[in-house]
Structures are given as structure tokens and as C-alpha cells.
Specification:
This protein is α+β, with helices and mostly antiparallel strands and about 190 residues long. The protein has five helices and nine strands. The longest helix is centred in the middle third of the chain and has 19 residues.
Length: about 190
């Protein structure tokens, strides 16, 4: 995602993306730098993870300390998102913005790009392998769908082996439903 704004003849280009590791964040930053090598600054902030298990990173990239990276980080933290990076690229337009002007320009650019970024709830999932007889196959497929789960692999041999991606909170419910359906004959293994 990308947004462009102009403040006192300086162009601010905010780019946001999904990152799940520090290495991915560094690669994202390097990609933005490579795309716009003639820019004055590439200020960034990222949060990897969510809740109590997060890794944070930010840089003012040559702007006065606390005027660029910190406001972008404040916006990213305030968004409630995890696994996100925002890089705000500045092309200097000849007018000094001062400390307050920089804080507002960088913060506003970060807000604008996060406002248009698509959001998706991150749901922890597990993989289950379920082995059922052919007579229970169709009903098992319906149970899988009813428990917000997705079939990733199906193998048909003497029995049917179904690999399923299941939301963590649905795992015991699905396992119980399949066990009840098959009168305990299904084999269910967590991978």
C-alpha cells in the first residue's frame, strides 16, 4: 500500500506492508530504498508479532532525533496491528519544517497509509490429519466446514485421509464431533 502527500514542497511517500520477521522488515526497507534511491530520508517503524510478544524497530534515518521514527511508531502502535511495517520516504522540497512540522508530516503520512491498508484477523491454526471410512467421508467434510476449517489434502485408499487446517479454538470441537460421528473409529492426529 502506498500514499503520497506534500507538506511545504516536501513529498512524503508512505509505504506499508505485512512482515512476519525482522529479516522480512529489513528486506522491505531495502526494497523501498532501492525503488527510491534519490530520496532524502527513508524513515520506518515496524511491529512484528502482536500483544505481549512483539519486536519493534524504528529509525529517524537522519532526521532530527525523535521527529520521524517515533511519530511513525506511535501511529503503528496505535493502529492495533501486528506484523506491519511503515516506511515514510521524504523528498526534501527546500523548506525546513521544524520539529513540530516533521512530527506532523511523518505521523500524518503513516496514518494515511494505514487507513487504506487491508486488515485481516490473524487466527492461530493447527493441522489435523483425520482418517475416516468412506461411509463417514461426506459427513466429515460437512463437519470440517462447520468448524471454520479448510481441507488442504485428501488421499483415497482403503480409508480416506484428510489433512485439515483448523482454527485453534475449533480443534477440540472438531475432533470431538468427528469422534462422535464415527463412534470413535476415526483416527485424528495433530501435526
Amino acid at each position: 500500500m502506498r500514499c503520497v502527500s506534500e507538506v511545504a514542497h516536501s513529498r512524503f511517500i508512505a509505504t506499508a506492508g505485512l512482515v512476519t520477521s525482522v529479516e522480512a522488515a529489513r528486506a522491505f526497507i531495502a526494497g523501498v530504498r532501492a525503488e527510491m534511491p534519490d530520496a532524502s530520508h527513508h524513515v520506518y517503524a515496524y511491529i512484528i508479532g502482536h500483544g505481549n510478544t512483539t519486536t519493534l524497530g524504528m529509525s529517524d534515518d537522519g532526521e532530527p532525533s525523535g521527529t520521524a521514527g517515533r511519530p511513525v511508531m506511535g501511529v503503528v502502535k496505535g493502529s492495533g496491528l501486528g506484523d506491519v511495517i511503515v516506511v515514510v520516504t521524504r523528498y526534501f522540497g527546500g523548506t525546513l519544517l521544524g520539529t513540530g512540522g516533521l512530527v506532523h508530516a511523518y505521523g500524518d503520512a503513516a496514518k494515511a497509509v494505514l487507513a487504506i491498508m487491508p486488515r485481516e484477523e490473524k487466527i492461530e491454526r493447527r493441522t489435523l490429519v483425520i482418517v475416516v471410512d468412506y461411509a463417514s467421508y461426506e459427513q466429515t467434510r460437512r463437519l470440517i466446514a462447520a468448524h471454520a476449517s479448510t481441507i488442504t489434502i485428501e488421499e483415497f485408499a482403503a480409508d480416506v485421509t484428510i489433512e485439515v487446517s483448523v482454527p485453534l479454538e475449533q480443534q477440540p470441537l472438531l475432533a470431538s464431533a468427528v469422534t462422535e460421528l464415527t463412534a470413535g473409529k476415526a483416527q485424528i492426529v495433530e501435526m
